[in-house]
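Sequence, please.
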């Protein structure tokens, strides 16, 4: 690789990180600014051509991004909304594929029906990265965030399966085999789940036994690629395999060493930042090569096609989401005579969070060269992706503020649950300290015991305060050594209580992560001292 090629290779991530730094510094949405910056940069004279290679996107960028999102998600919260997530990740994707395909075929007669269905599958999956980032920052309720996360994790698998079937039919010039497609999806999903669980189970057992946090996180970096490659090798869904592995390991992360957890958070935050910056910049940079492929097209007519498909993608989601959210509750209300309907504001926000992303573009660029109307499909995909990112992405924060949605009640409930859990955990820590003293572990230095007791009591009070209602040479063990040893025992007892309360659904995963981080940093401080 010569110096010129190397500089071009580094220009993309360096420029993307620079734009991201500006966005984060000013409190803007980094994905949206990256897309706009890429759009502008693609027309700058002398700008290198950065082609979006679908194989690199799907096998290099996508696995760690999905894995990181799954690792940070909550298995218990996802399980609570599994019906809604399933209807969005499978039902909405298929609904989009069929309806967009039929309308695209009617709108563009020269686009064969199978090719139109492929277009529908390409633009069907959402990428809620920017919506989730904005929603968390502005206080979108946790359940809405969980639904968006679950949909974003699983809908790629449905879309890519429908895409493969439609592309094969379009290239062969035959009708799509719906029965075969259904069987392929069931095998792909089922095998992906089994492979993801098998890999995650082995890795979780290994991570629990590793005290070296660097090695543990080195192994963790290999998991998404291992899960993806293993599943794809047997023609299963690599996407589902990666997601399942991430969800399982995220649920088990509280049982690994404190060093592994602290380093894991930093490692995946950096990986997310770099990968997402490059991916969203790449989306914007594709405008020039895509427009060059439309040299023989009537741009006015093509522009009309693009606007119609963009509006269709927005409207179909707005129609499907209320049905998905309200229909199960209506059935439950009839059966159980009681069911709380979700706030209509949350339903509106979920309906509007339909931004498309890099998976759609990667699928479009992966179309065979002999695919019917390939350049037109590429442009229409790009128009839907950019349209949803800019129109919905820019208006999403305004809509949250306009509707007055917040998670204040959830945060108060979390603080209350955390305070109660802190008190229970501190009681367990004090009980463990008394056991150690009774066993003769500590013969001297009563002040150390008092310090430990005082610290446990202060920890128990800290949660209530958040709510506003709180008021040697001879070879012998030194006081500081005893303090560190005993405090580690107490921290272990506290962690066990928090994990048990999380598993019993008495505190949420976010509460567990928050208190675990506090305990981990304290243990790290003990280790450093």
């Amino acid at each position: 690789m010569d110096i010129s090629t190397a500089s071009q290779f580094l220009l993309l991530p360096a420029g993307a990180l620079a734009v991201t730094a500006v966005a984060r510094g000013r409190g803007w949405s980094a994905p949206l600014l990256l897309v706009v910056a890429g759009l502008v940069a693609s027309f700058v004279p002398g700008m290198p051509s950065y082609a979006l290679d679908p194989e690199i996107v799907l096998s290099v960028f996508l696995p760690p991004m999905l894995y990181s999102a799954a690792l940070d998600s909550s298995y218990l919260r996802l399980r609570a909304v599994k019906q809604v997530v399933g209807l969005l990740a499978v039902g909405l994707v298929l609904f989009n594929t069929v309806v967009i395909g039929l309308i695209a075929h009617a709108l563009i007669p020269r686009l064969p029906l199978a090719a139109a269905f492929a277009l529908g599958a390409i633009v069907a999956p959402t990428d809620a990265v920017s919506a989730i980032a904005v929603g968390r920052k502005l206080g979108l309720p946790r359940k809405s965030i969980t639904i968006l996360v679950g949909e974003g994790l699983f809908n790629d698998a449905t879309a890519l399966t429908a895409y493969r079937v439609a592309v094969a039919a379009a290239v062969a010039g035959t009708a799509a085999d719906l029965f075969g497609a259904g069987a392929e999806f069931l095998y792909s999903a089922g095998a992906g789940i089994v492979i993801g669980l098998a890999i995650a189970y082995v890795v979780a057992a290994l991570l629990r036994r590793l005290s070296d946090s660097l090695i543990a996180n080195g192994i963790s970096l290999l998991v998404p690629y291992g899960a993806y490659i293993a599943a794809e090798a047997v023609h299963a869904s690599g996407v589902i395999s990666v997601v399942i592995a991430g969800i399982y390991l995220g649920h088990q992360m509280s049982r690994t060493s404190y060093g592994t957890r602290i380093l894991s958070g930093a490692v995946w935050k950096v990986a997310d930042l770099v990968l997402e910056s490059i991916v969203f910049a790449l989306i914007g940079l594709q405008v020039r090569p895509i427009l060059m492929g439309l040299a023989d097209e009537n741009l006015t007519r093509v522009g009309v096609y693009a606007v119609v498909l963009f509006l269709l993608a927005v409207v179909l989601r707005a129609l499907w989401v209320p049905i998905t959210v309200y229909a199960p509750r209506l059935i439950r209300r009839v059966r159980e005579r009681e069911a709380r309907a979700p706030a209509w504001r949350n339903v509106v926000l979920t309906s509007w969070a339909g931004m498309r992303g890099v998976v759609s573009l990667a699928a479009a660029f992966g179309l065979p060269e002999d695919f019917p109307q390939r350049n037109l499909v590429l442009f229409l995909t790009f128009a839907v992706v950019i349209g949803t990112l800019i129109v919905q992405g820019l208006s999403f924060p305004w809509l949250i503020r306009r509707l007055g949605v917040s998670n204040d009640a959830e945060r108060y409930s979390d603080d209350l649950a955390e305070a109660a859990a802190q008190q229970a955990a501190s009681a367990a820590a004090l009980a463990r300290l008394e056991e150690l003293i009774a066993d003769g572990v500590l013969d001297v230095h009563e002040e150390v015991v008092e310090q430990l007791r005082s610290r446990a009591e202060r920890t128990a009070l800290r949660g209530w305060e958040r709510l506003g209602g709180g008021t040697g040479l001879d070879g012998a063990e030194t006081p500081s050594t005893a303090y560190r040893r005993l405090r580690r025992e107490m921290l272990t007892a506290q962690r066990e209580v928090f994990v048990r309360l999380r598993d019993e659904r008495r505190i949420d995963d976010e509460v567990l992560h928050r208190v675990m981080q506090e305990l981990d940093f304290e243990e790290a401080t003990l280790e450093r001292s």
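Residues 3-406 form a domain with the Na+/H+ antiporter like fold fold (CATH 1.20.1530.20).
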